Amino acid sequence: MASQTVDTDNKEGMIFHFRVSIKSLPGKLMAKLVEFAKKTKRLGREDPRRIIHSFKVGLAIALVSLFYYFEPLYKGFGISAMWAVLTVVVVFEFSVGGTLSRGLNRGLATFLASALGFGAHHLASLPGEKGEPILLGLFVFLLAAAVSFLRFFPEMKARYDYGLMIFILTFSLISVSAYHDDEVMRIAYERVITILIGIFTALFVCIFICPVWAGDDLHSLVANNIDKLANFFEAFVPLYLKISQEGEPEMTFLEGYKCVLNSKQTEESLANFAGWEPGHGKFRFRHPWKKYLKIGSLTRDCAYRIESLNGYLIQNAETQIPEEIRGKMQDACINMSSEAVKALKELAFSIKTMTKPCSADSHITKSKIAAKNLKSLLSTSLCKETEISEVMQAITVVSLLVDVVACTKKIAESVQELASFAKFKSEKPKQAPLRTSSKISEPEHVITIHQPSSLPE
Q1: What is the pLDDT of residues 305-346, one digit of tens each?
Q2: Best label site of 151, 280, 369, 442, fewest CB within 10 Å?
Q3: In degrees, to the nearest 5, what angle opens at C-alpha 55 toward C-alphas 50 and 58?
Q4: What is the pTM of this model?
């Protein structure tokens, strides 16, 4: 009897918990929906182009779906019309360069593989039925192995990896299926035509309806990264020297350089896509996009030194530099940092306006002179008047700041090189405005990169 009572209690408890969970299900579902709506709103606000891109994809797919909705078009291509829909789904990327890259790779690979596939089938059929499968297998092996090896070359993998995969797939399908299917010629012809229709539809919608140019995004990204380095120094030195200002810099503002550290993959993807794009806007055909990668690499080197500087100060936050030493090095530090800030601001402004930087070199020279004076001050008078342990932190910080100034000079040289190759205007740009408060005056520009899938459709 006792065991039956316990079983009954357990069943009643399970039923009670089940009823409670059922009653709370609408509330949990509503919370999930609210959270999803907030994420959707945030994504749309970060970059409204994402919403436009979604509508563009829907429009392109709807257009190629007409092959199924209209009977005359469907009779002309039949089930092969589905390749147009699949091509739009696979080819349509966020930027014009990404869509051109995928579209041209897919179109050229399909056409070449189809031609070679029929050629291989014709050659294999010459010796007769016994030798045909052997020769077909040999052709598939040789071409698949050779093309797969080409994918290991960095240049081929960066620009043509997707096309090489499609080439292997199409050649293998045509070569193998042609052995038993007499209508493979018609099927391949319809597939090539529908794929080309899908590619042209995707390109038309991507280019002529609110186009997103990868070159514009790369141009803005490199300039904004340099600007973030300048913003760090503009806020860092007063904070480090404990100089009071009307608008105290926010600690979050000092973290802006960290996104520069993780920009390598984005810059490489944008540069690759920009290389496929035709001349547009202020960018001519064959614009030197690779120069942006060099500037981006130097900018990250500078950001890594800032990371070391910031990390060192965080680890030694409890160790304060004596007020007497701070007072003596204050003027030199301010001069060095302000000149570096002016140089970086002008370099970023020069890239944004595509004008040659006129006074960046003079600012860097003044910054180097101030750094030299600061090093001389620390190595002579301060070391004689105080213990070496008291100025050790100041010496380390100054050494890191000097490295940053050296990186700034390299960035300036690369920007000058870009200005020469891209034929920037020679007019002297207006002085870029310095930050007067701790808040960012302009909204952050989010750049979205859609990485292509690794497997062909």
Answers
A1: 888 877 766 665 555 566 666 666 777 778 888 888 889 999
A2: 442
A3: 125
A4: 0.81
